[in-house]
Amino acid sequence: MSVTTVKPPFTLHFTTNQSPDNTQPVFGRLRYVAAGHNPEPSPHNYHLPAISEFSDVRTLRLHSMRPVPTVDELSSKKNHAQLETHGFTAVYHPTTLHSPPYTHSSWKDPALLSKYYIPDTTAMLKALTGCKTVVTESLLLRSAVWTESDALATHAGHGEEENTSSAYLDLEKGFPSFIGFNPSSGGVSPAPKPHLDYSPVGARVHIREYHPLLCEAATQIISAEDTLLSEYPDAPLRDVYSRSLSTKRWAMYSIWRPLKPVKRDPLALLDQRSMSPDDYIPVGIKTPCLGRTGVEAEKSHVAEGYLARYSDGHEWFWIDEQKPEEVLVIGLFDSELEGKGWKGAGGTLHSSIELVGQGEYIEARESLEMRCLCIW
NCBIfam families given for it (predicted)? Predict the structure, then answer.
């Protein structure tokens, strides 16, 4: 292992391209928050702190998740990453849009994604988790090389710029929300900063504030939790949640798939069991409140997430040259696992990474992220 500490600002550096070799260790660069440093939140919507806040750069080994099983095969693959243990998993899951007459461009058509991809993925999630309800809240298209501020900053007309047609504004403000599909502002870029999108506090704020239809779908959850908070004001919610007959298990997931084989900026995921409580750093992430009108349309909220400090033993996983049929299911929050005392509450830190030997002139990665609320 090599450790490099750099003083911000710094830029991403690439050398020559090398194809992954499954017989040899593969290493990637991960950017942590330095010990003793408290990062400043980003002023931009959906954005993590500036990359200059991540000055502890580590070159770490990546563990392969190949071969990638189907959902039906997953339970028998004891050595494969699992949601209940690692906080993420990988499954082989082709969809309707992978077959003719559909093409690569079909994946950038919100109408086709709504008609085929969301139902196909909903069925997969139900089979994988056993949940009864899947609520899709957003689809996020990443198709640009990394930049500090990207299309997320002005999503749905929020922010300092306004260059969005009414049709795309409707898609961005809708439910589910389509992010990164507006050709005038371009796709979203990778996030080369280890992070977990929601802390347990952030997850609860999110289902209450993100969109009225998400709040409506989570009505029973919110009502039961508010009741528990009033009945047990001095007890952590996680300690009383699992004992209450009025509550339901709920979880949030990101379903991440590439739209073409990944040659640069692959996604890596950190085994939650290798994190210690002191490794987590809470951070505020500015998020617009969608689906509102009038003055409320400009409202935003802070959805708390986690960043990380490095400690020995962190284990990162990836899929080398990940294919479009190979899906990462990323835990963001799970009320059941929160009840077991896990600080990450079933969520796992993840980051796009610069592979050692990755080429500078490889075309941008394209990926689609579908975020869901699951209820049992």
Answer: CmcJ_NvfI_EfuI
Helix %, strand %, coil % of the chain (to 5):
25, 25, 45
To the nearest 10°, the Cα dihedral for 229, 231, 234, 238?
A: -50
Per residue in 54-108, pLDDT (tens digit) is 999 999 999 999 999 999 999 899 899 999 999 999 999 999 999 999 999 999 9
- Contacts of 349 by beta carbon, 8 Å cutoff, 6+ apart: 194, 195, 196, 269, 270, 272, 275, 306, 308
CA distance 323 to 95: 13
- pLDDT value of position 157: 60
- Cα–Cα dist 191/375, whole Å: 28
Give the strands of the sheet with 133-142, arranged side by side.
88-92, 326-334, 250-258, 367-375, 133-142, 177-179
- Residue 192 is encoded by which pair of tokens? 């080369």
Q: Judging by beta carbons within 10 Å of its beta carbon (0-12, 13-18, 19+), is residue 270 exposed, middle or buried? A: buried
Buried b (16+ CB within 10 A) or exposed e, 143-182: bbbbeebbbbbbbbbbbeeeebeeebeebbbbbbbbbbbb
Give the number of residues written for the chain: 376
Strands (E), the chain: 2-5, 26-32, 56-64, 88-92, 133-142, 177-179, 250-258, 267-270, 280-283, 286-288, 300-302, 305-308, 316-318, 326-334, 350-352, 354-355, 367-375
Q: What would the two tokens of residue 367 be?
A: 């990926």
Q: Which of 23-27, 129-133, 311-315 shows the lowest per-residue confidence on average (mean pLDDT)?
A: 23-27
Q: At 233, phi and psi to the nearest 5?
A: -65, -20
For residue 183, is the peptide bond before it cis, meaning its omega torsion is within 30 degrees of 0? no
Q: Is the pTM of this model over 0.85?
A: yes
Residues whose CB falls within 8 Å of the CB of residue 216, separated by 6 or more in sequence, listed in order: none
